[in-house]
Specification:
The complex is a heterodimer of chains A (113) and B (112).
Chain A lengths: L4 E3 L2 E4 L5 E6 L6 E7 L6 E7 L2 E5 L6 E5 L5 E5 L8 E8 L8 E2 L3 E5 L1
Parallel strand pairs in A: 2-11
Antiparallel strand pairs in A: 1-3, 3-8, 4-5, 4-9, 5-6, 7-8, 9-10, 9-11
Chain B lengths: L3 E2 L4 E5 L4 E7 L6 E7 L6 E7 L4 E4 L2 E6 L4 E6 L8 E8 L7 E2 L3 E6 L1
Parallel strand pairs in B: 2-11
Antiparallel strand pairs in B: 1-3, 3-8, 4-5, 4-9, 6-7, 7-8, 9-10, 9-11
The chains are: A mainly beta (113), B mainly beta (112).
């Protein structure tokens, strides 16, 4: 059974660019949640996808968007990057929407210059 | 506006002693609380949870206490082991399926 994987591990972008981060869910999981963790802060919930539909969203602007595919892998897209978007982006997968059962990936470190 | 607060950024304890990690919250709608542990270069892993209908939950060396009137919870680790050295996040939700709100985390160091 493979765990949650994320790609790329690190990324450097410039302000105004667009970025796509990818997450492969753990086998058998149908739910994925995305979090942003700024330096020195705890993870902040961005949104959750359950069976390819958005199932809840945190306080993030519309330029943060997502997608979940039929195989339950997921993408996080961020348009018009700002310097404050520099953070560790974590995805977590689970079977169902319960928080206890979510498994986190190692994250993608994004730096916006 | 931080709804989940972990005011102590770090804690250092001797191996074998008790570690007590504290967490306060301001949102009275929170009814489900979780603790996560995070090692460097890894994602957080679920440790233990507690529902607001309980005041204590125990799992091996880990016990979480909830004081609803004070809006305070604590994680006790007894006995502490060097492998417990990690960042610990407190998280809360208002309802089983509502969004999860995390605190900033506490770095625990267990000295051999």
């Amino acid at each position: 059974e493979t765990g949650v994987t994320q790609s790329p591990t690190h990324l450097i972008k410039t302000r105004g660019q667009q970025v796509t981060l990818r997450c492969s869910s753990q086998s058998g999981h149908n739910t994925v949640s995305w979090y942003q963790q700024a330096l020195g802060q705890g993870p902040q919930f961005i949104f959750q996808y359950y069976r390819e539909e958005e199932n809840g969203r945190g306080n993030f602007p519309p330029r943060f968007s997502g997608l979940q595919f039929p195989n339950y892998s997921s993408e996080l897209n961020v348009n018009a990057l700002e310097l404050d978007d520099s953070a560790l982006y974590l995805c977590a997968s689970s079977f169902g929407t319960g928080w206890e059962t979510q498994y986190f990936g190692p994250g993608t470190r994004l730096l916006v210059l | 506006d931080q709804q989940v607060k972990q005011n102590s950024p770090s804690l250092s304890v001797q191996e074998g002693r008790i570690s007590i990690l504290n967490c306060d919250y301001t949102n009275s709608m929170f009814d489900y609380f979780l603790w996560y542990k995070k090692y460097p270069a890894e994602g957080p892993t679920f440790l233990i949870s507690i529902s607001s209908i309980k005041d204590k939950n125990e799992d091996g060396r880990f016990t979480v206490f909830l004081n609803k009137s004070a809006k305070h919870l604590s994680l006790h680790i007894v006995p502490s082991q060097p492998g417990d050295s990690a960042v610990y996040f407190c998280a809360a939700s208002a309802g089983a399926n509502s969004k999860l709100t995390f605190g900033k985390g506490i770095t625990l160091s267990v000295r051999p």
